[in-house]
Amino acid sequence: MDLSGKVALVTGGASGIGAAAVDRLVAAGAQVVVVDRDADGAAAVAERAGGLAHAADVTDPAAMAAAVAAAEERFGRLDIVLLNAGVTAGQSGVTDLDLDGYRRILGVNLDHVVFGLNAAVPALRRAGGGHVVATASLAGLIGLPGDALYTATKHAVVGYVRAAGPALAGEGIRVTAVCPGFADTPLIGNVRAQFGDFPLLGADDVAAAVEQILERGEPGECWYVQPGREPAPYGFRGVPSPRGAGTPPEVGWQDA
After folding, report:
1. Choosing a second label site near 20 at 20 to 30 A (CA), which of 102, 135, 210, 246?
2. 212: helix, coil or strand?
3. Can you tell me the distance from the alpha carbon of 91 to that of 104, in angstroms, rounded to the nearest whole number?
4. Considering the chain, what is the average pLDDT of its residues?
């Protein structure tokens, strides 16, 4: 992948998947803006990458707009956006519900993707097109009984990407998602021991899948990433179509 002359912005870039993605983007020739609420962590990653660190609360739409503006001001353009910041709920959301925690996971996992895309689109248009990749999860494709709130937010990201992708494709802006299985990153730090010898992805495994998505991903695709398997677009099944009705071409109906 040759990204010479391209500029990328990565949220959650101070550690884990985000930091691994920064390294791959830089290795491919891109200049990178590292966005994270951890200012020191973002600065450390940006320093080794020769990029720009930008401390921001990704749940704030103004902060996401400021991050995009910082990328254009420093590097003159924006071509790639990886909306990667994420948190877990720390509660079931079924038999218990802490409202502040609920608002936090919605803000980081979902609002930031919406705010990030909304802020990035004008810059991508000015660059003549580009690519936005949102980090969803395997929990966006299946139900994760142990974390209903996390599952809800990642399903929402998957749905948002599937709708936003076709909406922007005509402008040369590809919107896709990466859906990793369990990954050995700081996100599972508190429960890492519970996985035992269960196969986990490394942060670079997911970053490598992001690289493949940037090369070959089509608008609205959601790529699964699992240990021992090649990343690939998930095959969504269409819903039954109305009987006796025409089929809108942009909707995934199936004959039934």
Report:
1. 102
2. helix
3. 12
4. 91
